[in-house]
Amino acid sequence: MGRANKVVLAYSGGVDTSVCIPYLIKEWGVQEVITLAADLGQGDELGPIKEKALKCGAVESLVVDAKEEFVKEYAFASIKANALYENRYPLSTALARPLITKLLVEAAEKYGADAVAHGCTGKGNDQVRFDVGIMALNPTLKVLAPAREWGMSREETIAYGEKFGVESPVKKSSPFSIDRNLLGRSIEAGPLEDPMTEPPEEIYLMTKAIADTPNEPEYIEIGFEKGIPVSLNGQTLDPVSLIVQLNEKVGKHGIGRIDMVENRVVGIKSREIYEAPALLVLIDAHRDLESITLTGDVTHYKRGIEETYSHLIYQGLWYSPLKEALDAFIDKTQERVTGMVRIKLFKGKATIVGRKSAYSIYSPDLATYGAEDQFDHKAAEGFIYIWGLPTRVWSQKTKGL
C-alpha cells in the first residue's frame, strides 16, 4: 500500500485515534496529520479534543458541528425508510459513518491531502463503512487504517502512545466499548461478550431502569410532514431539539433499550447493546402514520425496500446507486405521510394509541359494522368466486375431481 504525505484523520480523542497521529508520522512517514472530529452530539466527550490532537502531533485539529446535518440528512432519511437492521437495530451508530466520511473527504479536498485515515480495527463494521464510503466519494484518495495493521494489544498501544506524548487513561479503563451520538449509544465488549450475561444497569445512560420510571403514563403527540417529524406535543421544533427532547421524554420511561446478537459485515456475530429512545419511537410512529396514508400495495412493497435500505446503511453502502434509487422511491411514498401520532409512554413500553391525517384513506363508513355501513356486502360473493377460481381449478385437477 502506498503511503501518503498529508493525511486527514478521523479523530475521536480516544487512545487508538490519538496513537494514530504519531504512528502515521513515525512509522509510515506521513509529513502532516490533520485531525477531524465531528460533533454529532457526544456531549462532554469532545472536551478539549482540539488541544489533545495538537499535543499528539497534529498540525491542525478540526472540530465540525454536524448535529443538524446528522439529523436532517441521515436520521430523517432512515426514519422515512423505517430502517431497522435485522428488524431491531435503528442504525443509530451506523448512520454517523457516512456523514463522518463525507466530512473527511471534504477536508482532504480543502487542505490538499492525498489520504484519509481512521482508527478502526479489522473486526468491526466501521472500517467497511469508512473505506467504501471514501471510495464512493473520492476514489483517488488513499485510505490508511493503522490500527488494522499495527498488531499491538491495548497495553502495547497505550505504551507506544506514551513514548510520543499521548496521555494514558487516568482511571481504570472500562471493560466496555461505547459509542455515543445524538441518536443513541452502542455498548459492547467486556462481560457482554457472553450472550448469557445480563447487561449491568451501569452501562445505561439514556434510559432509566423500569423500577425508577414514573408510576403514571405520559402521552405524547408527534407531528409529521411528508414523513419527517416536525413537532412534539403541538410545538414545532428544529430537528436537533426534537431528538433531544424526545430522547429525554422516552428514556425517562425506560424505553429504547435493545439487546441483540447481530450479524456483522465481516461475517462474525456480535452481541450489542443499544440505547436509541427517540429513534425507535419515531420509526414506530412513522410506520403507524403510513398505515392510514399509504395504500395496501405500497405499504407491502415498501417493507421489502425498507429491509434492503437498512442493510445498505449497515453495510456501508450509503453512497451507492441502489441507495440513491431507493431514496427516490421512498420520497415518492412520503408525499402524503403527514399527520399526527399519539403515543402512551409507560414502564418500558411505547404504545401507539391514536393517529390522524388530512390525507387518511381510512374510511369509517366502510370500516364500521354499525348502521352507517356503506360497504356492499352482496358484492363480496362474486369477488370471492373470481378470487378463488384458480384455487378451485387447482384443487379439482390435483384431487382428480
TrEMBL record:
L-aspartate binds at T121, N125, D126. GO terms for molecular function: argininosuccinate synthase activity; ATP binding. Keywords: Amino-acid biosynthesis, Arginine biosynthesis, ATP-binding, Cytoplasm, Ligase, Nucleotide-binding. Coiled coil: none annotated. The keyword NADP does not apply. ATP binds at A10, Y11, S12, G13, G14, V15, D16, T17, S18, A38, G119. The keyword Nucleus does not apply. InterPro entries: Arginosuc_syn_C, Arginosuc_syn_N, Arginosuc_synth, Arginosuc_synth_CS, Arginosuc_synth_type_1_subfam, AS_cat/multimer_dom_body, Rossmann-like_a/b/a_fold. CDD domains: ASS. Its EC number is 6.3.4.5. Residues 176-394 form the Arginosuccinate synthase C-terminal domain. Residues 6-166 form the Arginosuccinate synthase-like N-terminal domain. One of its GO terms (cellular component) is cytoplasm. Homotetramer. This is Argininosuccinate synthase. It comes from Gloeothece citriformis (strain PCC 7424). The lineage of its organism: Bacteria, Bacillati, Cyanobacteriota, Cyanophyceae, Oscillatoriophycideae.
